[in-house]
Every structure is written in C-alpha cells, then in structure tokens.
Amino acid sequence: MATVIVPAHNEANVIQRCLDSLVNQPDLDRIIVACNGCTDNTVQIVQQCYPQVVCLDLSIPSKVHALNEAEKHVASWPVFYIDADVALSDDAVTQVSAGMRDRQLLLAAPQPVIDVSHSPWLVRQFYKTWLRLPYIREGVVATCSFVISEEGRKRFDKFPDVISDDGFVRSHFYAHELGNIEAASVFVSAPRTLKSLIKIKSRARLGNMELKARQLGFDKPEPQYASILPSLLFSRHCISTSIYIFLVFWFRLRARQQFQNLDSYQWEVDHSSRQ
User: Fold this and answer.
1) Residues 95-98: contacts with CB within 8 Å, 24+ apart?
2) What's 201's DSSP letter?
3) Which helix H or strand E contains 273, and what residues bound it?
C-alpha cells in the first residue's frame, strides 16, 4: 500500500483531473491534499467532491511547508509526491511500487508524457529535443512527480525552504538508486505560451543554482547531458535542436539574473496550462 501527497495552491481549475486519476488507484492507502494559502475554492472542491481524501487547509502559501505538514499524515510507503496539475495513468501506483521493489530503487517516478497539443510551435520544438535527451529516460527528472521509499526518505530531514523541492530530493540519491518506471505514466500539460515556458524553465535553473550555492545534497559530478546535442544538430532534428539550445541559453541567462536577487524572488507559475 502507498500514500499520495498533493500540494495545492489555488488549483481549482485542475485539482479534479488530478484526484480523478488517483481515487480509484489500487494499492493506494491514503491521499493527502495539502491546500496551502488558497484564495480560490480548491479546499471546497476537495472537501465536497472527495470525502475519502485527507484535506489539509493550511494558511501558509508554501509548497515545502505543505509537504512537511502532509508527511505528518503518511500512513504507508512508498509516498507519491504529485503536483496538482498532473494526472497518473491507471494502475500507476501499483506499477511504480512494484518496479521500485523489483529494481531496489529508493527514488522513482512514472514516465513523463507531455501534452503539447495546445502549445505554440516554438514550445513544441523545445519539447521535441527535450524528450530525446538521455536524462529523460535515465529517470526522475523534474516532471511534477516523484516517489520515495521508506528507506529513501531517511536520507534527509524536513523539506527545506528551496525553490526546487524535486531537485533537492534527487540530489540525495545516486544514479543506481533512482529510475523511471516505464509501465506507468504521469501526464503533464506543456505551457501554452512561450512566456510560460520561459518562466518555469528559468525557475528550474534557478532552483538548481540555489541548491548548488547552499551545498544541499550529495557532492556528485554533474552529468554531461549536452553531449547528444551536436549529433542532433546535424540530423533531421536540427531545427528543433537549434531552438532548444537557444531557449536553454535564455533560461540560464534569466536564472542568473534572478539569482542576483534571490531573496526577493517571487515564485513563477505557468497559469496557461491550468486553463
């Protein structure tokens, strides 16, 4: 049996899609929705439509605070940490739990499926290359979900106040301890505007910069994922790869500028995919 934690801040537009994908999952003992600082009707939707769910109404609008409070209600392991704007495939809980046991993984995630059907051309080109990069298949990328075993959760104390909670978690595990479970999927809606893509990818870069500066996690060599890009540049994927490289440079530049004023950083959200 497993537990699911869903942190939710003003997720009224998407929370039902997420919970509908969870409530009928076999081998799921408890669903905990940690509503944090909501000013919309997220809490009311969860309480009224999903009485079987543990709904926490927290006043502080902080994702990491929500995760820490939700963990006090964990009843069984592994624990699935799922963002409110994604959905799991049928039997994902069973398949991921079994895959972790079989492969002796401490950290895992379902395989990401990115819906770009509502995204503009430039965003679609970015994801064409992004999905071809080795680290997508190597496992547990920042795709709005991760799963930790009971043993794995002993690697760190509480979630610290950081931008990248999933990056923080991933930094506590070595390559042989983590992986994606290909039999299960997490469905992610891609940004519907280029501006929104820039926001969330800059935030991801900024989060990694913060983790490195604060020396959180293990001291591990950085993987050289960009080694595949030259071969893609000289292939039929040259256009999408060129766009990817340009946008990644943009993300990094923007993140570096934001890092200079990290104390005043305001969390950036992709509202376009939540419509």
Assistant:
1) 95/181, 95/183, 95/184, 96/147, 96/181, 96/184, 97/2, 97/27, 97/147
2) H
3) none
Counting as low any pLDDT under 70, the low residues of the chain are 137-143, 219-226
For the chain, the farthest-separated pair of C-alpha atoms sits apart, in whole angstroms, at 55
DSSP characters over 138-157:
HS--SSSEEEE-TTGGGG-S
Domain of 41 in residue numbering reads as 2-274
For the chain, the domain total comes to 1
pLDDT of residue 113: 92
In three-state secondary structure terms, 218 is: coil
For 224, residues 6+ apart whose C-beta sits below 8 A from its C-beta are none
Q: The CATH number of the domain where 50 resides is what?
A: 3.90.550.10
Strands (E), the chain: 2-8, 28-36, 54-58, 79-82, 86-88, 107-115, 145-148, 178-189
- Inter-CA distances, 26 with 3, 30, 136, 180, Å: 11, 11, 27, 20
Rounded to whole angstroms, the Cα distance separating 247 from 250 reads 5
Name the residue type at position 250: W
